[in-house]
Amino acid sequence: MAASRREVLRLYKELMRESGQFKSYIYRSYALRRVRDAFKEHKTVQDKDEINELLDDGLKNLEIIKRQV
After folding, report:
1. Residue 23, SS3?
2. Is the CB of residue 34 less than 8 Å from the CB of residue 22?
3. Where are the domains of the chain?
4. Which ranges carry the Complex 1 LYR protein domain (predicted)?
């Protein structure tokens, strides 16, 4: 699966939206910060295989967050 910019942005928005639904302020702020930091850290990645791997990891994390919220 080739990751497009649109897919990455959609994942970012979904992660931010779901992370913002934690009832506890501490969990909510931690999750939001982790999402922002992870995307900033990998902002310069150009390798398509690495991007796809990061996208898959992000989707797995999204499912985990959805179960916990």
Report:
1. coil
2. no
3. 5-68
4. 6-63
> Are the beta carbons of 16 and 32 closer than 8 angstroms?
yes
User: Whole-angstrom Cα distance, residue 60 to residue 33?
Assistant: 18
For the CA atoms of 46, 49, 54, 59, what is the dihedral angle to 10 degrees? 130
Q: What residue type is 63 in one-letter code?
A: E
Unique residue bearing structure tokens 């990998």: 42
Tokens of 63: 């499912």
Q: What is the pLDDT of residues 5-63, one digit of tens each?
A: 999 999 999 999 999 999 999 999 999 999 999 999 999 999 999 999 999 999 999 99
Residue owning tokens 């916990």: 68
Q: Using an 8 Å Cβ cutoff, are 54 and 45 in contact?
A: yes
